[in-house]
Amino acid sequence: MKEPLPPLMDLVELKKDILDKHPSAALPCQLSDFWLDRIADSLDQVLENPCDESRDYLAGPIALVAHLLFARSSSSELEVSQLHLYEYLCAYRVEVALEVMNRRTDLRATSASLETIFTDRPLTSSYAYPK
């Protein structure tokens, strides 16, 4: 039996809550739990189940990646190949997963900043022993 699809991202709310703000608002470490989960679901749907039904899940993650890329650019225009866009989406998915891990386990990893997101940065992790 086919699993139900996750809810679609509300792009109007995404714009109001994140895209209308400074690009750092799109960093996974700055997202609310609601948006972190919604973005994780959308990225999973797009990258794990590419089909006609999943294309509707792509707009939100692309907007977030573009928002972050504009922060790293001095231009008001952005040109990205489809291959690089796919790589950015995969990298953003990893950053989202690391943030989920940070919030929901005793493992901690360094969060990406505007300067380090989408780079081959060293990842430092630690174990936060329960009290």
Q: What does this protein structure show overall?
A:
With 131 residues, this protein is mainly alpha-helical. It contains four helices and two strands; from the N terminus they run ααααββ. It has helices spanning 11-19, 33-48, 59-71, 82-104; strands at 107-109, 125-127. It has a two-stranded antiparallel ribbon. The mean pLDDT is 90.
Count of strand segments: 2
Taken as a percent bin, the fraction of beta residues is: under 5%
List the total number of helices: 4
Averaged pLDDT: 90
What is the chain-wise order of helices and strands? HHHHEE
What's the main sheet like? Answer: 2 strands, antiparallel
Q: Kindly name the structural category.
A: mainly alpha
What is the C-alpha radius of gyration, as a whole number of Å?
Answer: 15 Å
* Shape estimate: globular
Unreliable spans are none
Helix content: 40-55%
- Side by side, the strands of the main sheet go 1-2
User: Alpha-carbon distance between the termini?
Assistant: 42 Å
What is this structure, in a nutshell?
The chain contains four helices and two strands, in the order H-H-H-H-E-E. The chain is mainly alpha-helical.
